[in-house]
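REQUEST FORM: STRUCTURE PREDICTION
Request ID: SP-0412
Submitted by: Lab K.M.
Chain count: 1
Length (residues): 332
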Amino acid sequence: MDILFVLTILIVIFALAFDFINGFHDTANAIATSVSTKALKPRHAIILAAVMNFVGAMTFTGVAKTITSDIADPFKLENGSVVILAALIAAITWNLLTWYYGIPSSSSHAIIGAIAGAVIASAGFAAINFKGFLKILQALLFSPILAFVMGFIVYSIVKVIFRNSNLAKTNQRFRHIQIVTAALQSYTHGTNDAQKAMGIITMALIAGNLHSSTDIPYWVQVSCAIAMGLGTSVGGWKIIKTVGAKIMKIRPVNGVSADLTGAAIIFGATFIHLPVSTTHVISSSILGVGASHRVKGVNWGTAKRMLITWVITLPISGTLGAIAYYILNIFF
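STATUS: Completed
RESULT:
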C-alpha cells in the first residue's frame, strides 16, 4: 500500500481522536456553569451538550476552510502528510496532559501552535502564511479580552434590571433559562471547535492528492461531528470543576450572563470564519461576570494559573509539533 495513503489514513484516525478528546476537554466549559448551579444534572447536561455539539458541527464549514489554508498553503506544503500527523500527535499530547491536571487550556491554541511548529520544522518560516496566521492569532488573542469586557457589561446591565427583584425567585427563574443558554453555548462550540479537525483532515486529503480544493467533504463533516459528540458524552469532570467552581461561586444569574456572552462571541467568530478558543472565551466571560458581581469573589489565583497555561500553550505545542515532525521524518 502506498505510504502516502497510509499516512492519510493515520491522520484521519488521529484527527477524529483529537476531536473526540476536544469533546470531553473543551465541551466541559460549555456546560460547567449550568452543572455548578444545578440547573442541569451532570448526565442531562452532557447529553444536551453532545447533541447540540453535533448539530453545531453540521451547520458551518467556514472555520474549517480557514484552518485548511490560512496557516500554510496545503498545495505547497513540503512533506505535508508528516507535518499534519506530527501536529496532531503534539496537540493530543498537550490536551491529555492539561486534562489530566484539570487545567482548562485551549485545544485551538494547541492544534494551531502544533501545525505552525511542524510546518516550520519541515520547510522553515517561509512556509507559514503569515497574513492568515496573524489573523488567526489576533482572533485567539482578542476574543478572551472581548469576552471579559462583554461579560462585565452584560452582568452590569442584568444587575440594574433586576436590582429590586427577589434574589431567590430571580435565581430560580434564571436556573430554567440556563438550560437554554447551556444548549446555545454547546451549539456555538460545535460550530467552531469541531471544524478544526475538519480543516486538518481536508489538509491531509490535499497533501495526499485525494482532494483538489479547500471545500470540506461531507463525510469529513459528519465524522468530525460524530467524534465531537461522542467525546462530549464522555464528559470532562476535572475541567467542569475548575471552570464551574474554582473561578467564582456561580449563581444562575451569573451563569446565564456568562453563557450568553460566550455564545455570542464564539458564534460571531464562526460567522466570520475565524477559529477562537472556546476555553478562553467561556472562562473569560465568567471572569468578567465575576468582576462585575464582586471583584473579591473571583479566585484570581485560579485565573492566574489559567492565564499562564493559555500563554505557554502556543509555544509548547509548537515545540512539540516540531519535535514530533523530526521523529516522524526519520521513519517516513
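NOTES: Residues 3-36 form the longest helix (34 residues).
Reviewed by: T.R.
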